[in-house]
Structure formats: structure tokens, C-alpha cells
Amino acid sequence: MEKKHYFASDNYSGVDSEILKSLERCNFGHADAYGYDSETEKSEKVFSELFGKKVKPFFVFNGTGSNVVALSSVLNRFESVIASEHAHIHQDECGALELISGCKILILPTKNGKISAQQLDSFNHYRGFEHNVQPKVVSISQSTELGTVYSNSEIKELADKAHSLGMYIHVDGARVSNAVVSQNTTFKEMFSDTGVDILSFGGTKNGLLFGEAVVFLNEELSKNILYVRKQSMQLFSKNRFIASQFNEFITKSIWKKNAENSNRMAQYLKEKLKKFDEIETVYSVDSNAVFAKVEPKLIEYLLEYTHFYIWNESESVVRWMCSFDTTKEDIDNFIFKIEEFYKKL
Length: 345
Prior knowledge:
Blueprint: H1 17-25, H2 38-51, E1 57-60, H3 63-72, E2 79-84, H4 88-91, H5 96-101, E3 104-108, E4 134-141, H6 152-164, E5 168-173, H7 176-182, H8 187-192, E6 198-201, E7 212-216, H9 225-231, H10 240-251, H11 254-273, E8 280-281, E9 289-293, H12 296-303, E10 309-312, E11 317-321, H13 328-344
Parallel strand pairs: 2-3, 2-4, 4-5, 5-6
Antiparallel strand pairs: 1-7, 6-7, 8-9, 9-11, 10-11
């Protein structure tokens, strides 16, 4: 079978070989179900070492599930979440949070996918007014849906502001490993030390077969998650198979190795694109995504070769996403197709 490499999403990639081995290793005999197994017990120590404080991961099936379970665990039905207009919970989760939690998402405009602490003041007049939903959580994506990354200081500023207004801060970390690598920092420095309350820790986009983790850095907020997770149909009976992947992912620094490669390949692609005056990179390439303004005919031509997403059709902007298994050869072949197109003109 011909190997196909897509630049559509890091969800299109396969599974890291070490992760597959971890699944095989824990596939022996019987173990207690619903998270009462030795792999899940081990994960508490693994995650606590990563974040530099005592934490307990709560495993779920997927990214939407991690966001919905995390946020629904701390929200009343009359409360709301503040997020960027590009946020995954707003644009790409089919209203799951609103359906399951009954809560509204309040949207802030952004130019680069990142919201600022100052923007939170725009909802001050909602507070204490019975006719308005009450803002309770600020949710940011790290890295963002536009491939940009918040610095540690930006996260701390947002967390401090949110806390001063009586709100919590949640991070949608579907590509959190790419963000940590991008900033040359640690999970402790980026999340524990900045005051983040809840993290949806993604692994599927970075080499795992399935499964994400909800991590409460503010332990007091975790009192409802067991029941919310079950009611949301996100409790996996054979929980050891998610836990074992994360244990391998973290202890062997697979998260770092894989994110370093996908970030590095995005930089390589960005540099290669500079030879084409007709192509404009539109956002800062901080992680593993390259957004480019490309003429429509080139888009049609390239889509016959590989798959990627047209991000903004009216502005002819596309997204090219690199994965943990993207190689320079994959990118060189892609660049060759662009060169081929312009030679034919």
C-alpha cells in the first residue's frame, strides 16, 4: 500500500510505536475496571512529577470529552465560559458543552487566536445581574487554533485577572506538548506556576492511539468530575489502556520527542515556502501549523496530491499541519508539487 502523507491534521497520523508497545504490555490477564487498576494508580505519580505538585488525571476518550467533562465539572447552568472566537469548544465541538452543561459560551474577537487579560473586563457588567449568564471560566487553547502559543507570562496574566474576577482558568491542551516545546519550558512552569486551574491534556494528536486526560491543578474543583464523566459517557471500563499510554508518553518523554519533530517540520515548511512570492504565511508559526494565503488554482492542484483544510475560503487561506511522523522528505515532496504547479503556468 502506498504511504500517504496528509497535511490536514495531526489526527491523521498513526500511533507512536512505543505507545503501541505499552498497550501490548498491559494486555495480559485481568485487571480491575473503571480506573482501579495498577496503570491508573501509577499515573497519579507520573502526572504529579510532571506538574511538580500532587495531581490526579481523569482519563476520557477524546478531546471534546475532555473539554466538556472539565468545564461541566465546575459550572452551574446559569454560568458561562469565556473563549476566543476561534476556540474549539465554540467552533468544532457541535455545541457539546452547551448541550451537556447547559452553559453558554461568551466569545471574544482575536487577531491571532489569543485573548488578553484586558478583554475580560468587557464582561464585568454581567456580574451579579440576574438577567445575564454569570462568567465563571476563562478557556484558552494552548496552542491555539491558529497555531500561535501563549507565553507563560501571558497565561499568568490571564489567570491572575480571571481569579481577581472570581473566575477559573481552563486550558484546552489538545496540542499542549507542542506549546511546551515551543516555549522551551516545562508543564510545571507553564501551568502549575502560572495559576491554571484545569487542563485538558491531549495526547491523540501527538502519537497516542486514543484517550485524553483532565488534570485539576486546583484540586478543590475536582469533586464532581467522577459523576460528570460517567454521565457524559466518557468513563472507559478498561481504563488501564488509556493510563498505560500516558505513563509511557510522559516517563519516556515521548510527548517531547514527538512535539519537537512536528514543530521542527512546521518551521522547515515555513522556510521552504519563502521561495514562493505568491504564498504568504499569515500567522506566526509557533507550533506545528502553517497558515498560508494561497491562490485558489494552487489549492485545487495540491488537493489532487494530498489532503489539507481550506481555513478561510473567502481569503484563500489554508492550514498545513505537521505531525509527529512528518519528515523532511514529506515536505520536500509537497514543495516539489508547488514548484511543479508554477512551472506549468
